[in-house]
Amino acid sequence: MGSASAWAQCAGGAPVPGASAAQIVALAGQGQTRAPGVEPWSPAALAQQLGAGADMRTLALSSAALLLADRTQIRMSASAQVRLCESQPQRTLLELAAGRLWARTKKTPATLQLQTPAALAVVRGTDWDVEVDAAGRTTLTVLSGLVELSNAQGSVQLGPAEQGFVEPGRAPVKRVLVNPRERVQWVAAYPTDTTRWAEFQRPDIAPALADLRAALQAGQWNAAQAQLQQMAARGDASAVVPLVLADLDLRNGQMDAAQARLAAAWPRTQDPRIAARRAELLMALDRPAEARAWLDTTRTAAPAAPELLLADADWHRLEGRGDAALALYRQAADAAPAGTAQQAAALRGLGRALQERGDLHAARTTLARAV
Q1: Which of 7, 119, 269, 353 has the maximal Cβ count within 10 Å?
Q2: Phi and psi for 290 in degrees, rounded to 5?
Q3: Domain 2-178 bears CATH identifier 2.60.120.1440
Q4: What is 186-370's CATH topology?
Q5: Checking DSSP bridges between strand 112-115 and strand 81-87, what pairing results, if any?
Q6: DSSP H or E run through 27
Q7: What is the pLDDT of residue 286?
Q8: Is residue 33 very low, low, confident or very high in pLDDT (cuts 50, 70, 90)?
Q9: Where is the FecR protein domain (predicted)?
Q10: Closest Cα partner for 37 from 58, 51, 21?
Q11: pTM given for the model
Q12: What is the pLDDT of residues 133-172, one digit of tens each?
């Protein structure tokens, strides 16, 4: 992160002394902050107030969420670094030196500017996702609203379903996406609870899994990862090992590594949860053809598994095949044990699909059953 901090200069920003630029409203794993002009980093804390000009970064296997003074919400992925050059109700200036963040700007008209090593983004009331790689290349995806992405070499205007890409020293280019709100799913695909798997819910949980659960619940991601790797090295055949390792890959921003891990685990475990989770990640990676082939193969092995029925329903909904999606969501809800999280997920999917078809009464009734 050294080169990233050297780059960030808050060009054009004038921090207001003593002003609170943001508050840390969520923190999973480890984050660090530092005040303007202070070289050592300090551990970040939940509810911490960050002053104008402060830096915030997330470490490996970690994430954070910030609420800015203008009510903009920001979620940072693992290994991201942002500088709060200026954040006031009337004007916000940020710099993203590395990593990925998602933001929702509520103020209209928005007065938010985001500087990266490659370009300046001027945001006008929007929901957007931006990533800066190790070489400073910037990818910005607009989900709603408008963004102008520019540098000395040129500029592009980005609207909903459009993405801008820019390398340092080159003009930005624009490309059109198919359904980006569904495709850009790194926030949604991010595991909210790494202990959600059934193995952690059993009253007779094995001691090793109890220790692992405690580490995960405490946010001790590195310790949990080391324990899981030891379990895998010992030949532990439990499906929960690759499932949680994939969750930790996602926490570290490595979605492709997560899906590859699950693909490797499927022949050994034949666990429908592994197959369904990989299908979800392939869809999030915008690889629908690969997800389709994977579902066709794995559903042959477990045709009635509610997890795979649900993943198949999601695939059909994303591809605009509403009738097939509705049928599969209903099959998944019927196949899942009553009152379980699996059944609730199937009912939520069915409710969303009904909403998209315009059947609002049936959608409301179905979503009420999912609660």
Answers
A1: 119
A2: -65, -40
A3: yes
A4: 1.25.40
A5: unpaired
A6: strand 20-28
A7: 74
A8: very high
A9: 55-148
A10: 51
A11: 0.62
A12: 989 999 998 877 889 999 999 999 998 778 899 999 999 9
Locate 258 and state its tokens. Answer: 């997560």
- Residue 255, CB-side half-sphere exposure with 13 Å CA sphere: 21
- Are 116 and 80 spatial neighbours (Cβ–Cβ below 8 Å)? no
**Residues 6 or more apart whose Cβ sits within 8 Å of residue 345:** 310, 332, 370
Q: Which residues of 163-182 are buried (b: 16+ CB within 10 A; e: fewer)?
A: bbbbbeeeebebeebeebeb
Q: Which amino acid is at 178?
A: V
Domain residue ranges of the chain, discontinuous segments joined by +: 2-178, 186-370
How many CA within 13 A on the CB side of residue 188? Answer: 12
- β 92-104/112-115 pair status: parallel
List the beta bridge partners of residue 140.
130, 164
User: Cα separation of 85 and 232, whole Å?
Assistant: 44
Q: Which helix (H) or strand (E) holds 327?
A: helix 322-335
Cα(23)–Cα(187) distance, integer angstroms: 20
SS3 333: helix
